[in-house]
Hints:
40% helix, 2 helices, Immunoglobulin-like
Amino acid sequence: MLEEERHSHHWLKVIGVILATFLGAFLAFYFAVDMTFNKMMNPDYQIRKMEKMMQHQEKKFHKFEDRVMQDNPFEPRMAPMLVNLAKEANEYKVIVNLKPLGGDEKNVNVKLDENIVTISGEVEKNSRHGEKIMNFSQSFYLDENLNPDKITKVRKGDKYIITIPFEE
């Protein structure tokens, strides 16, 4: 009989452990669900959640707006100052900023027609959004007698300096 009692006590222990485990798991699940439910029903939590969602949507909208406004080919934009003219003793200096032109003086054309100097150029830029072509042209009317045979072109860093001598 002693053996049977031990055997039945063993099964009672096993069943007790299983019931205690099941009860503990049920209580932990109930506690977690209850906390989550109470948190979700709290108006402050709902307000914070809505504010966070609105901020996220606002950020996405601003990103979209920036991208659309940046890539709008129909919107006129101010070009950076590419060409500056300086008058010095017995010469004009036309200074071209090469940075927006890909840093290459080959993208710059100089044309002298009587007393009108025209600086023009074009550069193609490929990006992940497509190909962009930038071109420019700027003309200057100069009063003095220009000497077209003595025009010099020198590159200094990002500047392309065209010197046009004149006689007063």
